[in-house]
Task: structure prediction
Amino acid sequence: MVNPDLTALTGDYTIDSAHSAIGFTVRHAMVTNVKGKFLDFSGSLHLDGADPAASSASIDVKMESIDTGSADRDGHLKSADFFKIDEFPTMTFRSAKAEALGGDDYRITGDLTVLGTTKPLTIDLEFNGAAKDPFGNERVGFEGKAEILRSEWGLTWNAALETGGVLVSDKIKLHFDISAIKNA
Result:
């Protein structure tokens, strides 16, 4: 993949959700990790290749689309114990600051809103490159990761284990694989 002059990347992009992923990992029963993802999300990026600090991102996630591979667990996550999707159907991220860290590494900080609670979130990103696909679309790709404490957004349901500890960890690892298409 040829990495073009970054100034050529300047512009507005739409996230291609068919070729992107927003996922999470959470410790379960203190012994294993459960992975999940959101199947329905949309978003946009504004990239400024000459001044990365002027870049921004906006993402909306439909909470009903949560998928952990278990219908029972997904149903519990959609319930009043967790995401209350009838009352709060969407999780949002709106960036406020972007930083170039050197090489292909970037950091974006913004506001994550879950359950009507908005808190800052910092995402470390790696630029995977840019390419023109066979359909003539100009694409960019990023991988990102962040960690949050779910309790900071009011996600506090849990159950004590007989052996000590809790069923669901407070720490959640977030994973992002983003492919975005430049708007015409």
About this structure: The chain has one helix and eleven strands. Helices lie at 71-78. The mean pLDDT is 94.
